[in-house]
């Protein structure tokens, strides 16, 4: 942390100011990178170096919305996955796709996809070492041995161009040090947690160094299966994670540096189940019959079927009653559950200084991701109401990005030119069962899709100093996408892909030719323009506007001609303006950040729930709506006394559909709420550092509190569907406002040694809160189930370095 005198030198002329973009607080420097060279030296400890415009700059000097989280904060709050970042950025949210822990849906500033499946690109891209992590499976890996994490908010139309209409999350891995060093961690915690981490810096020569890093996490899980049967008492919500990373940095010549990063991550989980909350009594599929009257599908009903299996409480209604009377982390399932993902990648990053004013950069990557999952989606011990069984997915992607960076006109013009190529190919297989006992002729459901997608673009951006204080920035990108999707869907062994015949009739494809290829091309120009004025060295005002693009595609679940039609791209245009400054109020050191923005969200891709043949749940993807999002973001950092830092963040987000009609009935749906988007959200964090006498180390205490307003939690619901729910059921479609508190207490350099000891507690007051779920009360399945976030967890970590 810098001295007060140093801070006054750069900030003393500004008495009171507010700032825009984001504040990373008054912590040690972090580096927000977008295809950036290695971090440069900081001027002092308040300067945060970013390269979001492809060159190293002080964050306080650039009109880019970034929340930067340094390595110390990641350690203090035990950030091991993307969901943990929600407590640090109020506009960022993560929800599991239908309860799958390794398939996340990300949201920033209200911009969120309906779900995470092949064929539908994300709205918020996850980047590791400047390379996009695709698909959703596996995007939550690699949260260890990081220099920092950065969250770029708003559409990134030029320098990040691929499907970043909401923003981007960047993970920057730690680079090799110049001297041989070892650092590590051993940790223990509740739920049988045992974790380790190790990093080794190996300088092989003055110009060649290697860093090896790895991490393991083992835990039993916090959920208990209380269903009758062979799986009674088993644990869920645990994991077995193994990660290894090698980073090699070499100066090939005096002007060429090459970085090679190889990663391997494997995360096996025993699933995370949902909790049944309600059953629709009017739904014949789910209704429990105590006798042979009114049989469904030729069956005597679920009660009789389950009674024959020896279950004394078989009905879904009984399952709701049981769930209401127990802890939300006691769950029911009649099958083994798992959700596993494995990924490896190789990234090559070459930077060549062609001259004092010209740099060439090449980023090449190859990555493979494989996943498998089996989840009891109906959350009951009743056999196969709705179950995914042995779902698998594999994806291979490679990318090439070339950049030419330079300065001209006596350094008044800073510019970057580039090109990007990306190709992905993979298969997602989604077998499952829908009321297997009652509809034996319609099971199992086998959905399989083969994706083959290509994207390429060219871009240019420049910043020109009109005066020493006034800078104009403009950039443009041209994007082209080719999407191919081959559908192979069967139900009970018969082809389920219906096509139109020349005579106007419809019929499924024959079993021996059950394959339907789909292909289309999409393109869109995107870009950015901004102007900023440095009123004083400590005070910046700016205005910016960006256009972002999310590619179109095809519906993986399509099985009738209307659903085979491609959905078009969606776009987001924003306008953002504000100021940012560092200053003192009396003796108190301050940094304030305020952002005000308005977004126009058009051709929104929405997944619409439909019923397939046999009544099984399905979906269609359409460009259904347009909307606007207005927001205000305030971040305030205060250092009232030496050693105490307080960071506060507040976000107001107001999204509204402007035009939204049911594509089939043309009913006005503009009152539909945005999901996982709280109107108000707050984050408060305080950190205290106190050196001990006699060189005995330093005490470090951190407390973090995150609050969010009420949110709707089902992306498939429209205002029309919501209105069909009884008033007593409506609260189940939401998560009410709640707080989550995290604390850590650390003793660094224990008794002057190279050991650090830390104790932490996550969700300290054991708040029960929903992170997603399946809500098909009015649909074929007729039930509501909720996925809950983890309960309180306490643990200790011992860190060392040599």
From TrEMBL:
InterPro entries xref list: Beta-barrel_TonB, Beta-barrel_TonB_sf, Plug_dom, TonB-dep_rcpt-like, TonB_rcpt_CS
Domain TonB-dependent receptor plug: 59-168
Signal peptide per UniProt: 1-32
UniProt keyword annotations, A-Z: Cell outer membrane, Ion transport, Iron, Iron transport, Membrane, Receptor, Signal, TonB box, Transmembrane, Transmembrane beta strand, Transport
Top-level taxonomic group: Bacteria
Gene3D superfamilies: TonB-dependent receptor, beta-barrel domain
Keyword Transport carried by entry: yes
Keyword Transmembrane: yes
Residue span, TonB-dependent receptor-like beta-barrel domain: 326-763
Subcellular localization(s) per the UniProt record: Cell outer membrane
Main location: membrane
Positions occupied by motif TonB C-terminal box: 785-802
Membrane topology term: Multi-pass membrane protein
One protein family per Pfam: Plug
Protein family per UniProt: Belongs to the TonB-dependent receptor family.
Name listed for the protein in its UniProt record: TonB-dependent receptor
Organism: Novosphingobium kalidii
